Amino acid sequence: MTVTYTARVANARFGGFSKLLLLWRGSIYKLLYREVLVFLGGYLALSAIYRFILTENQRPYFEKLVMYCDQYANLIPVSFVLGFYVTLVVNRWWNQYLCMPLPDALMCAISGSVHGRDERGRLYRRTLMRYAGLSAVLILRSVSTAVFKRFPTIDHVVEAGFMTREERKKYESLNSSYNKYWIPCIWFANLAAQARKEGRIRDSSTFKLLMEKLDEFRGKCGMLFHYDWISVPLVYTQVVTIAVYSFFLACLIGRQFLDPTKGYKNHNMDLCVPVFTLLQFFFYVGWLKVAEQLINPFGEDDDDFETNFLIDRNFQVSMLAVDEMYDDLPLLEKDLYWDAADARAPYTAATAFMMHQPSFQGSTFDITLAKEDMQFQRLEGMEGQLEGPSVPGDFLHRLLAGGPGPGLGPGPSTILGRRLSLLRRKNSCVSEASTIAGCSCPDCGHDDSATGPLLDPPSEPEPAPPAAPASSSAEPLPSVVVVPTNRGSTPNPAPLPPWLPSPIGEEEESLA
C-alpha cells in the first residue's frame, strides 16, 4: 500500500521533515539496512585482519594497497552517472502513473449519451462500462504482479464478474499469439454502434465523442503494455550498478585507518568505524535503491501502485455512474445566494482572518508614481524635450545635435542635415530629366517618335539615371517628384518625402 505522509508536511515549520525520519514502512532504513550491515561487516573484518592477523612485514603491503585504492577511487563518476539514471527512472515512474486507465471521463460520456430508462438501456450502459473495466483488468494482470496473483487465469476473471462465459468463448476462440487486452474495446465499439442504430445514441456527434473517450482509455492501456515491454536499457542499469558497487568496493579497502605512528598522509587518527564513509554509502546506495524500487511500480513494494485498489474503485464508481445515477437529478431550487449581488461563502472562526486580506489585482497595482509624472504632456512640448540632451547617448539627440537650420529642419552640420542636402541635389537632377521626358509641349524639342507614346507606370520602377555632379556653390533647387499622368496633361509635382533611403556612397564620406 502506498505510504502517504502529505498531511504531516501540510505546513512548513521548524524541522518539518524530521517527523518523517522515524517512519519505518516505506523508509530508506527498511530498504537499505541489509546492505549497510554487509558493508560495515566487511570493513570491520578487513580492519581486524590488518590489526591482529598481518605481521609487521605484511602490513606495509596492505598499507600501500590502502593508499592506492583511496587515491584512485574518486575517478569513478558515481554522482554523475547515478544522478542522470535516477532522474530518468523518476520521470518514467510518474509517466506510468499518468497512463493508469481511469474510467471517469468514459463513464460520464456513457451516462450522458446512451439513453433509455428501460432494462435494455440499462443493459447497454452497464455492458459498455464492464467492457472498459475488463480491458483494464486484462492489461493490469499482464503488468502487475499483485493483480496477476488476484486473477491468475481467465477463469478467475469470469468468476469475478468482469467477463461472462459466452464472452470467454469468443475471447479464446480468437486465435492470436499476442496480448488480447484490446478485444473488449472492440466489443465496446461494436455495441456502441448497435446502440446508435437503435437510437439509444441520438446523433453522430455524441457517438463520435464516445469513441474519442474510448480511444483515450484504450491508449492508456496500450501505453502500460509498452512501458512493461520497453524498459530502461539494460546497459544503462548495468553501468550504474557497476559504478556504485565498484566505488564502495574500493572504499572498503581505501578508507581503512592506518597506524598513525607511521606518518602516512591523511592518517592522523585511528578510528574503528568510518562514520563519513558510512554516510556516503548510505546516500549513494540509497539513491540506487530508490531507482531500483521505482523502475517497476507494478510490484509489491511499499510505494508501488495500488492496482487492486484502483480496480475495485473504478468498477464500483463506474457502475454507479451509468446505472443508479443515470437520469437521476436532485430537485432544482434557488441557491442560497440567488438575490445576492456580491455572493461570498462564509468562513469559520479558524479562517475568519482571510476575509480581511485584499484580493490580488496584479503586480503593477503596487507601483506608485509622483504627481508630476502622472500628468499628460502635449505633443508640442514633447518635441522640445526630444531635442534636448535628456537621455545620454540617445540616437535622436546625436542625430539632431547640430541644431535646426533656418526653415529646413535639422541644421547642415548634423548627419541628417548632410544627408538631406545631398538628396535634394541628386533628386533635383532626376526631376529635371523626368520633366523633359514627360513633357508634351513643342518648345522642349522632345520627339515622341523615338521613344513612343507615354504608357501607364509599370509595376516595377526603372532605375534612375546617374546624377550629374552638383556645384557646391550653387543654391540647391527645390526637389520634386513627377507623378505620371495621361498624355497631354501637365506634370503634377509632389514634394519629396524626407525619409527616402539614402543612395549616398562616397559623397557622404566626403561630406562627413
TrEMBL record:
<feature type="region of interest" description="Disordered">
    <location>
        <begin position="450"/>
        <end position="512"/>
    </location>
</feature>
<keyword id="KW-0813">Transport</keyword>
<dbReference type="GO" id="GO:0005886">
    <property type="term" value="C:plasma membrane"/>
</dbReference>
<keyword id="KW-0868">Chloride</keyword>
<feature type="transmembrane region" description="Helical">
    <location>
        <begin position="65"/>
        <end position="88"/>
    </location>
</feature>
<keyword id="KW-1003">Cell membrane</keyword>
<dbReference type="GO" id="GO:0005254">
    <property type="term" value="F:chloride channel activity"/>
</dbReference>
<dbReference type="Pfam" id="PF01062">
    <property type="entry name" value="Bestrophin"/>
</dbReference>
<dbReference type="InterPro" id="IPR000615">
    <property type="entry name" value="Bestrophin"/>
</dbReference>
<comment type="function">
    <text>Forms calcium-sensitive chloride channels. Permeable to bicarbonate.</text>
</comment>
<keyword id="KW-1133">Transmembrane helix</keyword>
<keyword id="KW-0472">Membrane</keyword>
<feature type="transmembrane region" description="Helical">
    <location>
        <begin position="235"/>
        <end position="258"/>
    </location>
</feature>
<dbReference type="GO" id="GO:0005217">
    <property type="term" value="F:intracellularly ligand-gated monoatomic ion channel activity"/>
</dbReference>
<dbReference type="GO" id="GO:0034707">
    <property type="term" value="C:chloride channel complex"/>
</dbReference>
<feature type="compositionally biased region" description="Low complexity">
    <location>
        <begin position="469"/>
        <end position="484"/>
    </location>
</feature>
<keyword id="KW-0406">Ion transport</keyword>
<feature type="transmembrane region" description="Helical">
    <location>
        <begin position="270"/>
        <end position="288"/>
    </location>
</feature>
<dbReference type="InterPro" id="IPR021134">
    <property type="entry name" value="Bestrophin-like"/>
</dbReference>
<keyword id="KW-0407">Ion channel</keyword>
<dbReference type="GO" id="GO:0099094">
    <property type="term" value="F:ligand-gated monoatomic cation channel activity"/>
</dbReference>
<feature type="compositionally biased region" description="Pro residues">
    <location>
        <begin position="492"/>
        <end position="501"/>
    </location>
</feature>
<dbReference type="GO" id="GO:0160133">
    <property type="term" value="F:bicarbonate channel activity"/>
</dbReference>
<keyword id="KW-0869">Chloride channel</keyword>
<comment type="similarity">
    <text>Belongs to the anion channel-forming bestrophin (TC 1.A.46) family. Calcium-sensitive chloride channel subfamily.</text>
</comment>
<protein>
    <recommendedName>
        <fullName>Bestrophin</fullName>
    </recommendedName>
</protein>
<feature type="compositionally biased region" description="Pro residues">
    <location>
        <begin position="455"/>
        <end position="468"/>
    </location>
</feature>
<feature type="transmembrane region" description="Helical">
    <location>
        <begin position="31"/>
        <end position="53"/>
    </location>
</feature>
<keyword id="KW-0812">Transmembrane</keyword>
<feature type="transmembrane region" description="Helical">
    <location>
        <begin position="128"/>
        <end position="148"/>
    </location>
</feature>
